[in-house]
Structure formats: structure tokens, C-alpha cells
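Researcher: I'm preparing a figure for a lab meeting and need a structural model of a single chain. I don't have an experimental structure, so a prediction will have to do for now. The sequence is pasted below. Please return the structure as C-alpha cells so I can convert it later.
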Amino acid sequence: MNPSRRNFCARVALAPLAAGTAFTAQAQGWASRRLPGSIAAALRQARIPETSCSFIIQALDDTRPQLSVNAGQAMNPASVLKLVPTFVALNLLGPAFRWETPVYAVGPLNDGVLSGDLAFVGSGDPHLMADNLWSLAQRLRDLGLHKIDGNVLIDRSIYALPPHDPAVFDEDALAPYNVGPDAFLLNFGAVRLGFHPEPQTDSVSITTEPPLSGFTVTQRPQLSGGACGAWKSRLQASFADPLTPAFAGQYAAACNDQTWNIAAPMPADRFVQAILAATFAQTGIRWNGQVVSGRLPSTATLLTTWKSEPLAVIVRDINKYSNNVMAQQVFLQLAIQAFGMPADFGKAAQATTQWLDAHQLGMSDLVLDNGCGLSRIARISADDINRLLRAAWASPVMPEFVSSLPLAGEDGTLKRRFAGSPETGLIHAKTGSLRNVLSIAGYVQTPAGRRLSVTALINDPRAAGGWGAIEALLDEALHSA
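Model: Understood. Here is the structure written out cell by cell.
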């Protein structure tokens, strides 16, 4: 569908619902502002005051909510905020949108030898993986490239972002959720360490996924007895030299095989170099240069282009598994779509609010920050989330949006919720959690087939104990008449 056709369909689909938005807001006076006993009891048990919560339930075929408690209060939504940029992106970019990462030769390619640099122009692809690079390397081999007598140049000029400190949010620089956006984001900026006990040699083997050239463990953990328990903390890991880590602690044989996903503990160029060197070695391309950042020279020659998965697939991965850096990359793409390059978070927020305003979904209290919800300043009201959910249900991208949400008892962040219960498969909802924040928003289908939108935001020092109240809210919606 072309952009003008897509925008026309969005306006037509959203207009009837948007026209009822003002009425819905006014009709909150008729909605129940008193919490059902089961929700109130769960809050009392968790010692969370009602004033720390926002709740709303509304049938999709009704013009007013059946329950609305503090719904107009702007609160921190944690990862539930991802619903805003992903819905806007599906409409503004289209579900079939793909990121394209071109590869250039900066110099002549003769008899299999590139006398110059190989260049990648970062597109902001949220899902460029190491195995995609392997496929690209094979494609380059098919084009006749066997040796690179130069460096690998990475052009990141599509973004204009300040340096990212992965420890600034919660001082956990190794947490993959703290990886920052990168115009040439590779493998989510993360690596998976694999631990395998070898009792026959009284040792522990350690591998990486993807393979990293130059990776060597200088000290392996001591194989020990006892229970597995908190095995990561007992490793005493040191990444002072990222490619030659040391593990001065212990690893229990009872742990069997384990994996540890960490943010790559090295600068982005060094991480790309470690992956590329291993990939080129596997595919038979000789290269002894370095990865460097810079602008693509005008004399470069296009060799090939890598295309990402479509946005509909990207959005599914973001919402089901709450991937922060992918959400930020999609958010920044909204800035590029609206204003061109380079993108930054301010332009991304402006593009998002402009689209919302143009489609009668203006949110005066919305604070998007980085667009993923990993933030202490992000704000939105339960009422605004509810309006977005109802607009999404009426929109042309409803199937892609709804199917991107975790399905209770089945997948994503709700896989372990309601598993094996009658409610399995009846709830599509995005979850969110931070210190002092717990949230959920999505759709519930009653056993009788009626569908409702549900939102819960809890901002309180005891928010982590609020799941009982959220489950009571979902149960209230599931058993609505």
C-alpha cells in the first residue's frame, strides 16, 4: 500500500473512534470509580495504596469504560510505553517496511582483491544479526571478493546521538536491556556466553554466540560441587579486557549447561570487528584490517544491500519480548521518516506526537523520552493508553499490532502467566516493570467472545508486589457480562 493510501485508510478507520473519544472522556463520570473487592483486597495485601494505581476496563463495543480509577493521571508506564511508537510505526512506515543496509567497495575490486575499504552504511536496522553478516559475506564471495586490502568502514551518520553509557540507568553495564541505539546495531549489541562443565577434565568450557575472533578465556571458573543456585554471581567475572575475560570464581557441576546473555563489554567498532573477523574467516575472505567509523566517500561503488525482516516481524519481537534497543531503533526511524537524517530522540518524539495529533489521539501528558520505557521520566495516562488500544483495534494494522502482544500462557513476557488455566490464550497484553513500576495494557476476550481493552499502571515502592491486583483486574475483565 502506498503512503497516501495508507494514511487515507488510517484516517477513515480512526475517525469514528476518535469522534467518540471526547464523549468517552466525558463519560468517565458514569464509569465505576470504585475498585472491585478482589482488586482492592490484592492492593491491601501488597500494601499498595489505590492512589498509586491507575486502572481502566472498557469493552471495545462500548462508548464508555466500565471501570476507571485514576485513569487520567500521568504515570510511568515502563515497557508498556512501547505500544505508542510501535503502533505509530505500523501506520507511518507500514507493516511491510524494511531497513536496507548497503555494502560498498571503496576502491577497485580486481581478481578477487579489494584494494581499499569495504564499507557498510548503517540504516538503523533493529535486527541485523551475526548470521545476516555471514549471509552477506557469502554474497560478497559470490561477487568475487576474496581479499580486502584495507579496513571496514562503518558509516553511522544516519543518527545524531550523544555517547551512550550503558551503566547510567541502573549501574548494570552488562545487562542487554541497557544497550543503546546504534545506526549499525549488530546482534542487539549483545553476546551469549555458554558454560559447559567437563567433569572428566575438572574444568568448564566457555563459548560465545556469535563467534568472536580473538576471544580467549584467561582464567576459567573452578568446577565445584553443591547446588547450582545463583551461579552467575559465583563466577567472579572480569571483563577488564573484553575479549580475554577471567572467571576467578566457581561453577557447580549441577548447573549443567547454562547461558549468560550480556551486553558486549567493548566499544561498538571492536565488537563489530570481532564478529566480522570470525565471519570472514569462516567464509574464506582474507582480511587483516580494522573496523573504523566515518562517512562513506562519494567514489564508493555499491556491491550489495541487506534487507531486514518487515516491520510487522520487528514489532512482534519488540512487544512480545520487550526488546529495548529494538524499540529505540524503530522510534528513531520515525524521525527519519518525518524529518530526514540524522535522527535523534527529540525528533522521534516530535514525529510521534505529530502523528498522534493528526489522528485525534493527542496526549498532552505524554513524555516519550527514548521511546522504549527504560526511563524514570517517561509518562502517559491509562486513559491515553486505552484510547490508543481502541484506535489500534479499529485501524488497518490491527492484526499486526494485536498479534505483536504477548499471549497469556503462550509466549513472550506472559508465557508463565495463566499457563494451563482457562484464561490461556484469552489475553493479548504488553507488560512493563521497573523498580517501583508495574504495568500491563492490552486486550481481553471473555469466554463468551466479548473483547475489552484493559490497562493497569502501578507506581509505588512496593509495585513489584502488585501482580495480584493486576491478575484480579484481568479476571474482572474476563468475567465481564
